[in-house]
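Input/output pair, single chain:
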Amino acid sequence: MKKIMILGLLAFLLTPGLFSQEMTGEDIIQKVNDLFNFDSNYSKSRMTIVTTSGQKRTFIYESWSKNKGEKNLVRYLEPRRVKGQAVLMLNNADDIWMYFPRTQRVRKLATHAKKQKMQGSDFSYEDMGSGDAFIKNFTSKRLKDEKMEGYDCYKLELTRKPDSDTSYSRLIMWVIKENFVPVVIDYYDEHDPTLLQKRLIQSDIRIIDGIPTAMKMVMINKNDNSQTEMELLEVKYNIPLDDRMFTERELKK
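Output:
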């Protein structure tokens, strides 16, 4: 009798999807955070902005990050008019400096600058350097699972914490069950949680240095009728980076 009970318990515990059903929103968002919790990375990207009028602007830049996204450095390579410009983001984009090669000057941006558009794109500086923002700035609630972009997904609602200064009142996120990559994120207005502001769609997911990585990201701005596409041309994770890279002094180099 005891043997039958043990076998029955094992069958119950090994039932596919059991743990998936028991995971809470906080469990899932922790998995998402852990996935991107790499110590450092380097990437080379192409960013294409499609404006409200349909015009296209393309930038190519390199970026480095350290301390799990707390420190970020971006250097522009193309087009010629922005070549050499650099942006340093520290403290998860709470502190931002910009370097302009024409004037050879570094300028510290105001605190609220993290909510501004990066090179006029649909990505804000906050979007680019948010680190552990999903956990620090939001509480997470699991909604009914849904299929999104062809993937079986967990669906989460992230609601801004009262003491957070993030630009979004809430997020709706679809997380791929297989690898915990957020395939779609809806961003809602800072003051109106019913007003959808932007949608991020991630695709072309590849395993890079053991980490599932979306090689293409499209941010669609619902208010401005514009969108920005980012393509990763090269990416490396957990590489040695000197802390001196992430200083105001090094921006000029």
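Residues 99 and 251 are 6 Å apart (CA to CA). The longest helix spans residues 2-13.
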